[in-house]
């Protein structure tokens, strides 16, 4: 109850953009209301791809700003391609390595971070996980909610996984239901819209009406709506974490899965279609691997000497920081690159149009 009260007071303070400022250049915020596990990083990557492929933004200076969760550095830092996860955070480093031309930076103070990037020539900034940073008002707010645990069916911390008021979902310009099965018909999408509390949803236009507007208000022309879109996860072929990794291990029918992310269920389901998962070790989100963890992994190797070892793309960034990676683990360690995409071409077109009209 105390947590809800604090969030309510904070929301009242910033409602309607009061006490918020805008960055010197257009900004796109990608955030969530749930604590982790919604897919913010792959959605940021999808946005960067769409922007870089567009006629409007493809030849201009695009930047990405993140807090750099659990990094050791302080203040504003530009992420280096050959940097470490310890210095910049695993997610910003992953993005920088995938998009070398995009200036990627970390800064806890998003207002100061945007000002520094704009001063350095950025013409548009993607904000990773900044929906709760109310001092900065983005030009486009995109909020993710997972298909298997929608915001409307969850509870605030510590009883659930919500870190913000559920009704803040309706403040977004675009709501994306992430981690969807790839076969959803219009009725399935309409059912999810009802589950999320939207009054109406049109599968053709992908427009959902927010419940904050009464029927009388809509009749008077005061329609308050947003785009409601649906995405699914794709995994690419296994990629060696290290140059010394032996590619022959990937042809094993057995695999040991370990990860330090909020929810590795999609990867586990994907791997189970092709491999027998003989062991599964799950660590906390953004976990910094220790010598004790490596001992546990070496023990798993002894139990499964012919198995390949699989982890997530985000974990791979942190594992490369380890100074003494056991050779027997190094030679059999792979990650599976992740990406997201919309369930229909129509959704992709509507989303791209929003991005490119900023």
List descriptors.
358 residues, alpha/beta, Rossmann fold, 2 domains, eleven-stranded mixed sheet, five-stranded mixed sheet, 12 helices, globular
Structure description:
This protein has 358 residues and is α/β, with parallel strands linked by helices. The chain has two domains: 2-233 and 341-356, Rossmann fold, CATH 3.40.50; 237-336. It has helices at residues 2-14, 40-53, 85-88, 90-98, 110-119, 186-195, 215-219, 265-272, 291-303, 313-319, 327-330, 345-356, and strands at residues 27-32, 62-66, 77-78, 103-106, 124-128, 140-146, 174-178, 200-202, 207-209, 225-235, 239-240, 254-259, 276-282, 308-312, 333-336, 338-342. The strands form two sheets. Strands 1, 2, 3, 4, 5, 6, 7, 8, 9, 10 and 16 form an eleven-stranded mixed beta sheet that branches. A five-stranded mixed beta sheet has the order 11-15-14-12-13. The longest helix has 14 residues, at 40-53. It is globular. The model has no long low-confidence stretch (mean pLDDT 93).
Characterize this entry briefly:
By secondary structure, this protein is an alpha/beta fold. It has helices at 2-14, 40-53, 85-88, 90-98, 110-119, 186-195, 215-219, 265-272, 291-303, 313-319, 327-330, 345-356, and strands at residues 27-32, 62-66, 77-78, 103-106, 124-128, 140-146, 174-178, 200-202, 207-209, 225-235, 239-240, 254-259, 276-282, 308-312, 333-336, 338-342.
């Amino acid at each position: 109850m105390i947590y809800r009260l604090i969030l309510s007071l904070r929301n009242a303070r910033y409602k309607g953009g009061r006490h918020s400022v805008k960055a010197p250049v257009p900004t796109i915020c990608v955030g969530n209301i749930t604590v982790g596990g919604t897919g913010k990083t792959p959605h940021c990557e999808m946005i960067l791809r769409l922007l870089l492929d567009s006629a409007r933004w493809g030849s201009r200076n695009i930047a990405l700003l993140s807090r750099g969760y659990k990094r050791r550095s302080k203040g504003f830092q530009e992420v280096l391609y050959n940097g470490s996860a310890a210095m910049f955070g695993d997610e910003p480093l992953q993005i920088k390595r995938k998009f070398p031309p995009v200036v990627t930076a970390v800064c806890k103070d998003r207002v100061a971070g945007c000002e520094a990037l704009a001063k350095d020539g950025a013409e548009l900034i993607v904000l990773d996980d900044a929906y709760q940073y109310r001092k900065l008002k983005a030009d486009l707010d995109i909020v993710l909610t997972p298909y298997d645990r929608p915001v409307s069916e969850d509870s605030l911390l510590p009883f659930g996984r919500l870190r913000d008021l559920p009704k803040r979902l309706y403040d977004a310009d675009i709501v994306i239901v992430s981690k969807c099965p790839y076969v959803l018909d219009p009725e399935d999408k309409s059912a999810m819209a009802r589950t999320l509390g939207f009054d109406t949803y049109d599968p053709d236009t992908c427009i959902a009406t927010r419940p904050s507007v009464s029927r009388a208000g809509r009749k008077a022309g005061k329609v308050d709506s947003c785009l409601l879109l649906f995405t699914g996860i794709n995994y690419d072929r296994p990629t060696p974490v290290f140059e010394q990794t032996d590619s022959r291990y990937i042809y094993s029918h057995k695999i040991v899965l370990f990860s330090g992310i909020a929810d590795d269920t999609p990867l586990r389901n994907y791997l189970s279609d092709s491999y027998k998962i003989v062991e599964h070790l799950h660590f906390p989100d953004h976990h910094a691997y220790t010598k004790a963890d490596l001992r546990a992994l070496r023990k798993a190797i002894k139990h499964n000497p012919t198995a390949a070892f699989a982890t997530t793309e985000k974990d791979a960034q942190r594992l490369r920081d380890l100074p003494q990676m056991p050779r027997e683990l190094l030679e059999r360690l792979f990650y599976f690159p992740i990406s997201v995409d919309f369930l229909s071409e129509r959704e992709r077109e509507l989303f791209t149009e929003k991005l490119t009209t900023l």
